[in-house]
Design goal:
The chain has a two-stranded antiparallel ribbon. The protein is built from 16 helices and two strands. It is elongated and about 110 Å long. By secondary structure, the chain is mainly alpha-helical.
Length: 376
């Protein structure tokens, strides 16, 4: 119920105060989204565990390289995936608490559109600014926070002190959760901010446009929503197109990012495409010359292809950047042996002996040193 709703700047003191109810919808999609999250979590648990990286990737987690490679459906699937039971529990509670309010106020179809597109916007922001694998409904939930914030900001005068108090509470919730995300490792705050901004923009398009229906004598009867489905559609289209455009621009930018180049290289290596993998690892090394991993992977493939000179050069760059890389020292020693650089090979084997983690590895290095005529 609402406090007096007559917005006249000079109210009649003799007029009786009237409380009118806002038009409300009964929540439906909130429960559908909650059920989807739980069912996906159960399926992931049975398929290998919701915290298993392979399972997360298979079910549709956000992986920048895969999205950049054309798996654009991953802009939507992460909002239904959760990493661990606590992640699911926290987001489920937030969806229940916020989703029921937003769906009652905005209506069923507008709520569903807002939730999905805000989640999409959150994944786009994460894809553009965060290289790590991520998943969760947090972006969509922050979209609900943004939508409620917009609603109570728009109707802060109509709803009176109670509405302004709600607006302050929502602002505090948003600030607290964003601050928590900045200080707690592993939280994808880029996705949160993207979802929040998307939620505000979508609320502008989908928020009810209230008016008071009056009798012929001017007495208020009820509150009605003047925003028709057609008007909502016309307003939401440019917001949706803006999110899609952001996704396209991010995909173009990410196609040449270091993380995507490395992931593409590993994907092709797993598929047996050595030439394709080498191309990506070389590009990754050029994009980030201070990455020992990029130089090592390029050297590994060059060695497998029998290009020992280039392999040795790549491994030398690796150990220059990471002196304690036992694997790089071992492979560099092998490459030097293939090139007839036996003294260099022995030098790297001796360093490898100080880094090897097992007796078997040290025994193999000792055997090679003996073959070189330089026993330790």
């Amino acid at each position: 119920m609402l406090p007096p709703t007559d917005p006249s700047p000079q109210p009649d003191p003799d007029r009786q105060m009237v409380a009118l109810a806002l038009p409300m919808s009964r929540p439906l999609f909130t429960w559908i989204f909650l059920a989807a999250n739980v069912l996906v979590f159960i399926a992931m648990t049975l398929a290998g565990g919701s915290e298993n990286t392979e399972t997360l990737v298979r079910f549709g987690a956000k992986v920048n390289a895969l999205i950049a490679g054309g798996e654009y459906w991953r802009f939507f699937t992460p909002m239904f995936i959760h990493i661990g039971i606590m992640h699911l529990a926290f987001n489920s509670y937030a969806l229940y608490a916020l989703g029921t309010d937003v769906e009652r106020l905005f209506g069923r179809a507008p709520f569903a559109v807002l939730y999905v597109l805000a989640g999409f916007g959150g994944v786009v922001a994460s894809f553009a600014l965060n290289d790590h694998l991520s998943a969760g409904a947090s972006g969509a939930i922050f979209g609900l926070i943004g939508a409620l914030g917009y609603f109570f900001a728009r109707y802060r005068n109509l709803l009176g002190q109670a509405g302004r108090r709600q607006l302050a509470n929502i602002a505090l919730v948003a600030i607290y959760n964003l601050a928590f995300g900045f200080f707690y490792p592993g939280v994808d705050n880029h996705g949160h901010i993207g979802g929040l901004i998307s939620g505000v923009a979508l609320a502008w398009a989908l928020c009810p446009d209230y008016s008071i229906l009056r009798t012929s004598e001017g007495e208020p009867v009820r509150v009605v929503d003047l925003r028709t489905p057609r008007k909502r559609l016309l307003l939401v289209l440019p917001v949706a197109l803006a999110i899609v455009l952001g996704a396209a621009l991010a995909a173009r930018a990410q196609s040449d990012s270091f993380a995507v180049l490395m992931d593409q290289g590993n994907t092709r290596l797993d598929g047996g495409d050595l030439d394709g993998a080498l191309e990506y690892f070389v590009k990754a090394a050029e994009a980030r010359p201070d990455s020992p991993d990029a130089h090592f992977m390029a050297g590994y493939i060059q060695f497998e292809q029998g290009n020992y000179e280039n392999a040795a050069a790549s491994f030398e760059k690796t150990v220059a950047l990471k002196e304690d890389s036992a694997e790089a020292r071992w492979n560099l020693a092998l490459a030097c042996m293939r090139l007839g650089r036996y003294q260099d090979a022995a030098e790297h084997l001796n360093v490898y002996l100080t880094l090897a983690s097992s007796e078997t590895e040290r025994s193999e290095a000792q055997q090679l040193l003996e073959e070189l005529g330089q026993p330790r």
